[in-house]
Amino acid sequence: MALVEAGKEALWLRGITSELGFPQKSVEIFCDSQSAICLAKNNVFHARTKHMAVRLNFIRDVIADGSLTVTKIGTLVNPADILTKSVPVKKFEEALSHLRVLRD
């Protein structure tokens, strides 16, 4: 599950920035999958997801203690699409500005 992997990476980066003197209370992850957000936030047992139970429990614990927050982002405005899909030039340029990538 991509949300779990992103959460692990975000927590690792939070630790590194903390060591460098830039502590953060919570890390916000944007996700365009409503079902992944529901699975991460809801503690109800789902028979179809029992193979992901360990990973889901990790992300649920991290969300519950406030170290991580997950926010829904619309598919049309998701800047991460430029890393995974072929997108038109205009959307590519908008995504670069959201990611704070500057041109010279």
UniProtKB/TrEMBL annotation:
CDD domains: RNase_HI_RT_Ty1
Domain of life: Eukaryota
Entries under PANTHER family matching the protein: GAG-POL-RELATED RETROTRANSPOSON, INTEGRASE CATALYTIC DOMAIN-CONTAINING PROTEIN
Protein name (database record): Retrovirus-related Pol polyprotein from transposon TNT 1-94
Species for this entry: Cardamine amara subsp. amara
